[in-house]
Amino acid sequence: MFASMPTPVNDPTQGFCRDCLGLQRAVKQRCEVCGSPRLARHAELYDLSLAHIDCDAFYAAVEKRDRPELRDRPVIIGGGKRGVVSTACYIARIRGVRSAMPMFKALEACPDAVVIKPDMEKYVAVGRQVRAMMQALTPLVEPISIDEAFLDLAGTQKLHGRPPALVLADFARRVEREVGITVSVGLSYCKFLAKVASDMAKPRGFSVIGDAEALSFLADKPVSLIWGVGKAFEATLAEGGIRTIGQLQTMERNELLRRYGTMGDRLHRLSRGQDERQVHPEHDAKSVSAETTFDKDLATFDDLVPILRALSEQVSARLKKSGIAGRTVVLKLKSADFRIKTRNRQLADATRLADRIFATGLELLRRETDGTRYRLLGIGVSDLSDDGRADPPDLVDVQSRKRALAEGAVDQLRAKFGGKAVETGYTFGRGSRGRLPRPDEE
């Protein structure tokens, strides 16, 4: 009954307190109710409904939640000295640690950091908990990754009895209280600026970018702020004398199209804060993969094969669990000098079998074992579809049916007795090379 009675809203320039949600009667430095300095104010505060929510240093935050003694310590989540940084807490970031940084460089920058191997199963569980809380606010939740999502709360004010800004502030409080991690919220009128806003005041941020200020807000920002402008394209724009978004705002669309093709249209629109993309609640996966970074560089075919087999089984297990299959097998290799190779092969039919994924990956791997030393190996499948028509009987390879049945029997035994109950000859007795590695990236 009370949800249908909207809460009176004050002047948006006076705003509300993010800690107690108390509405403010004047513009002051601290909340009139609880004294907190964390106040939300903006001329369009109660008119905006599109948000981007991002968990703060997610993996590290979960580990600090579970190990309170690490609260004031720099924490890095990654794959040991040979791996890369998956994420780092804000204490480590102050010291210069960044995501995707080689671990040895991260430890040079922050030698007293506590390094923890990723526990993806735990992180996925926490991510799902937060996502369920998002979906209680609105059905329009579009996950971007395990720890971030877009939300569209348009039309939900009657349901919640308060405007989206207050709903989101309350959500952030509840996540902190019930889940034990923090989130940052970006509120705007479009996806592009909502995402920009969520990055503005991390951690525990709550930032608003309104329609009226979009042009002036963007004008002095670097072109790299625009989605799709990476280092290479940023350099290309710099060659043309374009370094700020304000410079793009002065250029005609046709001129940008002439110079940069279809990317020119994106530059024209986003530089002006024009983004018509909607929030789509279902976001289909484009690929399923697993990869691992080695403790030491490997070069020989014999050393790489058992790892490829273990990763293929990991990918197969995910496909079967999700009821999907993939038609293109993709092999990924990273050499000792950090150069990345990807090789792919399209199959006649989609597959979810470890046997087919591994056999295809094996052919691709054989061509790349030319003495090059590798620090990372990955395997995956793309061109995903429902598994209803996956792996039909092969009239040429008559043994494929038997191998598929054998794999099904192995899956049942592992489900009952654990993943190590049955091993193939590729991985059996191979020590660390034969164990299913945790992927550095999902």
TrEMBL record:
An example Gene Ontology biological process: DNA repair
EC number: 2.7.7.7
Annotated compartments: Cytoplasm
Main location as per UniProt: cytoplasm
Pfam families on file: IMS, IMS_C, IMS_HHH_1
GO cellular component terms, semicolon-separated: cytosol
Site (Substrate discrimination): 59
InterPro entries associated with the record: DNA/RNA_pol_sf, DNA_pol_Y-fam_lit_finger_sf, DNA_pol_Y-fam_little_finger, DNA_polymerase-Y, DNApol_IV, IMS_HHH_1, Rev_trsase/Diguanyl_cyclase, UmuC
Subunit and interaction comment: Monomer.
Name of the protein in question: DNA polymerase IV
